């Protein structure tokens, strides 16, 4: 394989999320989140796993930061747990919750690692859910207050802020098909959640800017939507529909201003959009400094005018759209491995929504452990191949002119993989959940090399 160099100043790092790694669910005044409730509800998460202990990162953060430094990470993306900061989601701030992120930030800076904060990675305070969660406008207002509280504590040391992680998942999986917390199944609620999440982002950007924040953005999980048959008009229509409900419903209000007409019409079939107020458009479209992109796999669809489509997590696609079963090499999640999808996606975003720098805030793969012997380093050549392929794809996008600033691997550690619990492992570092022992896999050593050479 040819050697590839990345641009000078290209940022290399790793990402995690609070509920997936921290544990310490009842420590230091943390309130319950919708993921505590959901994971403790029988049948929702594989084998009844919860984030109660997870990787115990809350207590082991110093060792974990030392490991990041050993691997040469330049940046580390973590999320802040809202219910640690405001146990009830609104009202008094819990200083002990902020203390943890204060210690973490200082530990990172002490090792020369750039902290990238995500303010919301799915752990909504349960009290807010009891009042409607993301279907309530109040939640968006509360989010801005929470963002200000975190900024007030960390803003002097954290330079890069992102508001939400993957609002698509929060809305469609949380309120549409209910496979994620809070487990609601209601198309109207899903669309109302989309809007209130976007509004929360916009209000938080306003609040962060007012407080003096430097770099502010949001992380999406845009889909590379592909037709089963490139020559089929029905498939092209299916691509357009899914692209609207997955991508343009977020991109357009954030980066252009307002929802696309076809998306508005589709949503109106499920819910009267009284929750959209005139003033919201401007708030949501507040300029951002970076767009975080999470990419894992492409989405192949076929149009089914005969009404025989299986649909998916997208309200109103039942009957009309068939989501094709993944084919070819798959990860342990059953997701396709298609690096070219990343190049296509980055190019498409750069073309349709120019002027905003991009950062890959997540990319990675789950693969089962290869060895039962805990004394030999785990040889995860499948993960190395996945990462190598996707870095080549990212490099190709840069070569075609995409303004891509960096790459954060998902994930630093094996962790609580949401509805899959601990059975799916995304880490470049292995976690033995019985002993909490961390062991870098061969992918971690490979990544360390990539970073030190700034290339492949
Ligand atoms: C991210 O979600 C999350 O930010 C992170 O917390 C999580 O651990 C990580 O990825 C790994 O899952 O569902 O078969 O139709 C990614 C969620 C994955 C949702 C791909 C859409 C489409 C394939 N996305 N999925 S499928």
Automatic annotation (TrEMBL):
Q: Which residues bind substrate?
A: 20, 121, 165, 296, 410, 417-418
For this record, an example GO cellular component is:
cytosol
Q: Which Pfam families match?
A: Glyco_hydro_1
| UniProt xrefs under InterPro entries | GH, GH_1_N_CS, Glyco_hydro_1, Glyco_hydro_1_AS, Glyco_hydro_1_beta-glucosidase
UniProt KW keywords? Carbohydrate metabolism, Cellulose degradation, Glycosidase, Hydrolase, Polysaccharide degradation
Report the EC code(s) recorded for this entry: 3.2.1.21
GO terms, biological process: cellulose catabolic process
Give the top-level enzyme category.
hydrolase
- Reactions catalysed: Hydrolysis of terminal, non-reducing beta-D-glucosyl residues with release of beta-D-glucose
Q: Which residues form the active site?
A: 166 (proton donor), 362 (nucleophile)
As for family, the record states: Belongs to the glycosyl hydrolase 1 family.
* Name this protein carries in UniProt: Beta-glucosidase
> What lineage is on file?
Bacteria, Bacillati, Actinomycetota, Actinomycetes, Micromonosporales
């Amino acid at each position: 394989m040819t050697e590839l160099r990345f641009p000078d100043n290209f940022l290399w790092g790793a990402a995690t999320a609070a509920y997936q790694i921290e544990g310490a669910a009842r420590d230091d005044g943390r309130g319950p989140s919708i993921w505590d409730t959901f994971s403790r509800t029988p049948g929702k998460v594989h084998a009844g796993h919860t984030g109660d202990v997870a990787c115990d990162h809350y207590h082991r953060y110093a060792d974990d930061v030392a490991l990041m430094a050993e691997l040469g990470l330049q940046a580390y993306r973590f999320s802040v747990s809202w219910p640690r900061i405001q146990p009830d989601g609104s009202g008094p701030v819990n200083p002990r919750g902020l203390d943890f992120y204060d210690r973490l930030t200082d530990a990172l800076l002490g090792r020369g690692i750039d902290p990238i904060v995500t303010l919301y990675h799915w752990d909504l305070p349960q009290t807010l859910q009891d009042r409607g969660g993301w279907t309530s406008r109040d939640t968006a207002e509360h989010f801005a207050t929470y963002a200000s509280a975190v900024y007030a504590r960390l803003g002097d040391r954290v330079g890069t802020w992102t508001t939400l992680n993957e609002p698509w998942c929060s809305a469609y999986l949380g309120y549409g098909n209910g496979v994620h917390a809070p487990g609601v199944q209601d198309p109207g609620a899903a669309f109302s959640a989309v809007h209130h999440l976007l509004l929360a982002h916009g209000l938080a950007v306003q609040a962060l800017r007012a407080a003096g924040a430097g770099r502010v953005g949001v992380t999406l999980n845009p889909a590379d939507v592909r037709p089963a048959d490139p020559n089929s008009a029905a498939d092209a229509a299916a691509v357009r529909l899914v692209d609207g409900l997955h991508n343009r419903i977020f991109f357009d209000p954030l980066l252009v201003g307002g929802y696309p007409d076809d998306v508005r019409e589709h949503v109106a079939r499920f819910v009267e959009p009284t929750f959209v107020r005139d003033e919201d458009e401007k708030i949501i479209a507040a300029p951002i400094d970076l767009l975080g992109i999470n990419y894992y796999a492409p989405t192949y669809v076929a149009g089914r005018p005969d009404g025989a489509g299986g649909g998916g997590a997208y309200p109103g696609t039942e009957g009309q759209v068939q989501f094709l079963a993944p084919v070819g090499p798959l990860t342990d999640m059953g997701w396709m491995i298609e690096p070219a999808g990343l190049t296509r996606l980055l190019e498409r975003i750069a073309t349709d929504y120019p002027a905003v720098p991009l950062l890959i805030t997540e990319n990675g793969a789950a693969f089962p452990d290869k060895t039962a012997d805990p004394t030999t380093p785990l040889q995860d050549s499948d993960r190395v191949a996945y990462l190598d392929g996707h870095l080549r794809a990212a490099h190709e996008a840069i070569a075609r002119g995409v303004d891509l600033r960096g790459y954060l691997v998902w994930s630093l550690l094996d962790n609580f993989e949401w509805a899959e619990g601990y059975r799916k492992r995304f880490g470049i570092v292995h976690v033995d959940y019985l002993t909490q022992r961390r062991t870098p896999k061969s992918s971690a050593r490979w990544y360390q090399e990539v970073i030190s050479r700034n290339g492949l």
